[in-house]
Design goal:
By secondary structure, the chain is of the alpha+beta class. The protein contains five helices and five strands, in the order βββααααββα. Strands 1, 2, 3, 4 and 5 form a five-stranded antiparallel β-sheet that branches. Strand 2 and strand 3 form a beta hairpin. The longest helix is centred in the middle third of the chain and has 16 residues. About 25% of the residues are buried.
């Protein structure tokens, strides 16, 4: 059995109207320094977004969420943030902001497999 390693995670939220503080969980970001792992899983039901905020531009929201996934992956088309080390990318992504896409507080845990933990958290918090 693989040894347990620490990880941090945050939930991505879409907050169509910041003044109302209503949100839909849209994804999870997991970071484990010991495993050199930074990953995100993202999924949004456009119908739920429109039900929460009829005037929302779903395409723009999806583009921004996709950018988060590219930054996590360190993708070449992820811009300058995607070229930063994984630790710096994670902390940049989870920094508080008052925009349509926000993140929860960072939570910590122990895991033997960060990839599996990402899938489990996504299933519990988003799917």
């Amino acid at each position: 059995m693989r040894a347990l390693v620490s990880y941090d995670y945050a939930t991505l939220r879409v907050v169509p109207r910041v003044d109302r503080e209503e949100f839909i969980n849209a994804g999870v970001i997991v970071f484990s320094m010991e495993c050199a792992f930074l990953g995100a899983r993202i999924a949004v039901d456009p119908a739920r977004l429109i039900a929460l905020s009829p005037g929302i531009d779903v395409e723009v929201v999806m583009r921004h969420l996709d950018a988060i996934a590219r930054i996590c992956a360190g993708a070449p088309d992820g811009g300058p943030i995607a070229r930063m080390p994984a630790r710096e990318r994670f902390y940049w992504l989870v920094s508080p902001r008052s925009t349509v896409i926000q993140v929860s507080q960072v939570h910590s845990g122990l895991t033997a497999a960060p990839e599996k933990t990402l899938a489990d958290l996504f299933g519990r918090l988003v799917a």
